[in-house]
Every structure is written in C-alpha cells, then in structure tokens.
Amino acid sequence: MPLNHAKYIESLPHFTPSNMVVVGKFGRSVGLKGGIRATILTDFPEILASGNVFYVEYIDKLSSILSDPNKLDSNNTSKTQNKTDLIATKHNPTQENTRAYLPLILKTFHSTKKVIEFKEIIRREEAELLCNMLFYSTLDDTRELCTLEKDEFFYFDIIGMCVVEDGINLGIVKDIQEIANTHYLVLDKHFLIPYIDRYVLSVDLENRQIITKDAHFLRMA
C-alpha cells in the first residue's frame, strides 16, 4: 500500500464502538456508479440527508476505496476530513478499545428504492466491498441531526439508566425491545417494563433515573 494511503488510514477518525449508532446495513450493489441497496435501521430516516457524514468500520479490503490519489485530495474528502478532524482529536487512535472508521459523505438516498449513494463510492466494485456491512452515525451527530418530539428520548440515552420506584432501585436498563408496537425497558431476561404511562412516570436525563409506578409487580420469579 503506498505511503500516502497508510498515512491517510492512520488519520482516519477513531471511536469507541459505544460512541457509534447504527443507521443501516448495506446490501447488494445497484448499477455501475456505486449505488448500494440499504436496510435502514434508524428510527430517524431524516438523518439520511445529502451532505451528512456516516461511517463504516475500516477493514483492509476497503483500502481500494482510497486507492485513487485524486479521491484522497478531492473537495469531497476534504469536506469529510474537516467534519471529522475535531472528533478524531477527541478520540485518540492510540486509546484502548478505539477502532478506525472510514467516513462517507451521503450523496443521495432514494427512500422508495432504498438505494443509497456516497460521494466517495463511484464504482460498482467499491459498492460491492460494503455489502453486509453496517454504517453508523456518531452520538453527537445523531443528537444534532435528529429531532425529538416532547417526551421522546434516544435509545442510547435510556440504556444504562437506573429504574427507581418509591425510592428503591429496581435495576439498570440493559436494552430496549419493541414487542407488538410497544417498547419495553429490559432490566434482565425476567424483568421487562412497558414504556407506557401506566408504569413510567418520568425520565430524568440529568440524574440518569427513570421513575416508575407498580413496575416491580412485573418482575417474573
């Protein structure tokens, strides 16, 4: 691999996996100019706007996407690097548990056909390299680009919160599951709390607490 490629890879933004939010998963390539079928996994499809930056975890086979020196020096790549420079300084590549991510600028997303195009992916062969890979947004970008309604919260803000009832700590939210159009706070495999007004009284982001009523009756023996 040429030296300039190695330097570029070294300069890629590095994040801990916990700082990333899954947006979707790539499927097969479409057409000859880098289109990719995508399964959208986010609850906020508005994030898929032209110019927004997304990330795939860097693996060696993606080096061919960087093989064109003109692409590395193009305005598109400069724009991507400008957006990620500050983030990369916050996440030192030598920091334990960080991983390198390849940033991609969204060109277009065809919502009806579920086909996505990135400015850096211009050939069918490059699109095929991304097949079955997940693509991500950062926590900070997600908060900035996604609009919440009143009393709505991001999954990643809720997970890890303490559930408190009558001053007693019932446990920590380990996951959120959707069953029959209802979201459930998962404290463990025997304790799921429906996220409805009947049981959830309030969510305190500042103190990292969810206040419930009668939820303790839902714990299975």
From TrEMBL:
Entry's family note: Belongs to the RimM family.
What is the name of this protein? Ribosome maturation factor RimM
Q: Which Pfam families match?
A: PRC_RimM
Tell me the GO BP annotations in alphabetical order.
ribosomal small subunit biogenesis; rRNA processing
UniProt-listed NCBIfam families = 16S_RimM (TIGR02273)
Q: Which UniProt keywords apply?
A: Chaperone, Cytoplasm, Ribosome biogenesis, rRNA processing
Q: Which Gene3D superfamilies match?
A: PRC-barrel domain (2.30.30.240), RimM (2.40.30.60)
